[in-house]
Each structure stands twice: as structure tokens, then as C-alpha cells.
């Protein structure tokens, strides 16, 4: 059955991607969005907002016991907005993580977003869901069903072909 995160392992798979406040402040939104667009992924939803502390805390709840949790929530809720997105397409969850790069930018592939633009783990520009379960939770947390669009990009058949 199709869930809010699409169907795992199909062209309807979805991931939650967020440009963090440093990415917005550094005016890297267009460059980052372009990587997903040019790969052929479908933009299903996008909005900019300053998350409430409650939203940021829930998003990162699995890290609540870590020493950097307080600082992480403060960073995400700084007042400079984030850009929250849902992207869709074949293997988007795994490929999204590859586009984003390793958590510590000093270990990220230089071709990844973090590897090209960041050096600090606490200012690593971008988030992407790390599993189908995370994508389901995160899309549901950040978006309502009504905010998720259904359409077919003109190149979809070419890009997502499986034959
Ligand atoms: P991600 O999935 O690659 O974003 O990494 P995690 O889920 O492990 O951590 C979530 C976010 O917490 C990271 O993207 C960083 O912004 C932050 N973070 C993780 N580890 C550290 C750390 O050791 N120090 C600081 N300051 N922030 C961290
Ligand atoms: Mg994570």
C-alpha cells in the first residue's frame, strides 16, 4: 500500500530533505535544489519556515540524549528559515544521502553538498532522511497530505525508465 513516503523501492519512493538555516543564509538554496532537479527527481513539496522548538526537537528526537542536541535544536530554530522539501523518484532515500554526503563534512565526498560547501558537523547545511521509516515519520511531521503534489514532470518517463 502506498504511504505518505510512497512505495519503497519504486519510482514513487519519497524522502524528506531540508536545507538548514546556514544553507539559506549562505544563499545556497538554488544550487542545492538544482542537484535534485537535474538528477531527475520530482519536487513533491517545498516550503520555507522557521521551525518551532517542538518541531525541531521531534525531528531530532532520536538524538535527544546526545550532548549536541540542545545546540542542534537552537541551530535549526535560530530564526533564519529552513527550506523543507519532499523529493520523489527511484532510490531517492539512498541517493539523497549520497547527494548530501557524510554527516561530518570533513569526511564527505567532495562532490556531495556537504563536501563541496561545508566544513563543520554542526553547520552541515542539509538534512535527508536516512531510511524509509525515517522518511515516513519526517514527511508526516513536516507536511500535511494536502501539501504534497501529484504530477508528472515532462522528462519523468525518460529519467525513471527501468528497461
Ligand atoms: P545526518 O543524518 O547525517 O544529518 O546525521 P545525524 O542524524 O547523525 O545527526 C543529525 C545532525 O546532528 C547532523 O546533521 C548535525 O547537524 C548534528 N550533529 C551530529 N553529530 C554532531 C556532533 O558531533 N556535533 C555537533 N555539533 N552536531 C552534530
Ligand atoms: Mg540523521
TrEMBL record:
Family, per the entry?
Belongs to the NDK family.
* Residues of the active site: 127 (pros-phosphohistidine intermediate)
According to its UniProt record, the EC number is: 2.7.4.6
Q: Which residues of the full protein are shown?
A: 61 to 223 of 223
Q: Which GO terms describe its molecular function?
A: nucleoside diphosphate kinase activity
Q: What class of enzyme is it?
A: transferase
Cofactor(s) the protein requires to work: Mg(2+)
Sorted alphabetically, the keyword list is: Kinase, Transferase
Does NADP appear among the keywords? no
Q: Where is the Nucleoside diphosphate kinase-like domain?
A: 12-150
Q: Does the keyword Transferase apply?
A: yes
What is one Gene Ontology biological process annotated in the Swiss-Prot or TrEMBL record? UTP biosynthetic process
Binding annotation for ATP: 20, 68, 97, 103, 114, 124
Q: Whose protein is this, by species?
A: Naematelia encephala
The superkingdom listed in its UniProt entry is Eukaryota
* Protein name (Swiss-Prot/TrEMBL): Nucleoside diphosphate kinase
